[in-house]
Amino acid sequence: MRIFLISGISGSGKSVALNVLEDAGFYCVDNLPPSLLLQLIDTLARDGIDNVAVAIDARSSSSMGGLINSMHLLKSRGHQLDLLFLTAKTDSLIARFSETRRSHPLSHRLLPGQNPNDPRTLIECIHIERKLLSDIEVLAAVIDTSGLKANQLRIWIKDLVKIERSSITILFESFAFKVGVPLNADLVFDVRTIPNPHYDVNLRPLTGKDLPVKLFLEDQEEAQEMLGDISSFIEKWLPSFKYDNRSYLTICIGCTGGQHRSVYFVEQLAERFKATEQVIIRHREIQ
Fold first, then answer.
1. Is 8 annotated as a binding residue?
2. Which of 161, 179, 195 is the last residue of a domain?
3. Residue 116 has pLDDT above 90, yes or no
4. Where in the numbering of this chain does the RapZ-like N-terminal domain appear (predicted)?
C-alpha cells in the first residue's frame, strides 16, 4: 500500500494537499489520531485499498509520540510511506487566519500546565504547534507555503505523488534572497556573486530556463566553477543523507531576484543528478 501522511502547521494548506490526493485516487482521512493509524491501515488493506492519505495535526498531540514508531512499523510491513509536512512563516499564517476569521485549533484545547482562565493568543498557538510537531518535521518532505498560491501548491503536491521512491528524492528549488530563504531548505547555496543577467536589458525579461541566459552564464568562468563545486559537494555528501534514512533532500539555490542565476543553477544541477536520482524542480519566484 502507498501511504501519504500529511501534517504541518494549521493554516499552511493541509486541506489543499488532502484534496489533491483525493482527486488523485487516494482514500483520504482527515485529523486521524496517530494511535489509530495502524488499525486504519490494517482495515483498509483488508478492503483492498492501495492508496491512502491521512492528515494528522497537533490536535492529536497526546498520541503524537507513537507516530514515529507506527511509521517504522508500517515500513517494515512493506508499505511505501511518505510523510509530507506543510509550514509557513508566522506572519503569513496570521494573515490567513485573519482573512478566514477562523480560530486556531489549539486555542480550544487545554494543554498540560495551562490555566483555563488564561486563553492563548494566535501567535502563542502557532509557536506551541511548531514545538509539538518538531520531531516529525525533520523526517518529512517539507513545503514552505509562505506566499504560495493554492494552485502552485497543488502542482507541487502532484509532483510528489508521481514520485515512486526507491531511496531518496532530491528537490532543487530556486528562490530570491530578497523574498526570504525557504523554510524547507536542507542545504542553501548563494549564487549572488555570479554576474547578474538582470543588468543586460535584453536578458532582463527572460529566466534562467531561456537559451540566451544559459549562454550568458555558460560564458562566465566563475559560474561554471561554482556549479562544479556545488555539484561535487552534493555528490560527496549525498550518501551520508541516504545513510541517515532521509526520504527527501531539499537543496535551495538563491540569487537576488530568483529569476536568472538561481533558476539556471537549479536546472543544471537537476540535469546532472536526474540520471542517477529521483529529482523534483521548483522555481519559487517564477512559478
1. yes
2. 161
3. no
4. 1-159
Residue 154 assigned ligand-binding role? no
Rounded to 5 degrees, what angle do the CA atoms 117, 122, 124 make?
75
At which residue does the C-alpha cell 544559459 appear? Answer: 214
| pLDDT of res. 61 | 58
Residue pLDDT, tens place only, 77-112: 999 999 999 999 999 999 998 888 888 888 776 665
Residue 111's pLDDT is: 61
Task: Return d(Cα 183, Cα 186) in angstroms, integer.
Answer: 9
Is 2 flagged in the annotation as binding?
A: no
Enumerate residues 6+ apart whose C-beta is below 8 A from 276: none
pTM of the model: 0.70
From the list 215, 210, 223, 219, the residue with the least C-alpha distance to 259 is: 210
- Percentage, residues of the chain above pLDDT 70: 92
Residue with cell 482527515: 30
Residue 80 sits in a domain of what CATH number? 3.40.50.300
Amino acid, single-letter form, for residue 18 = L
Cα 88 from Cα 9, distance rounded (Å): 7
Within the chain, how many helices (H) and strands (E) appear?
Answer: 9, 9
Residue 10 marked in a binding site: yes
Distances (CA, A) of 51 to 1, 79, 80, 156: 6, 10, 10, 19
Q: Is residue 174 marked as binding?
A: no
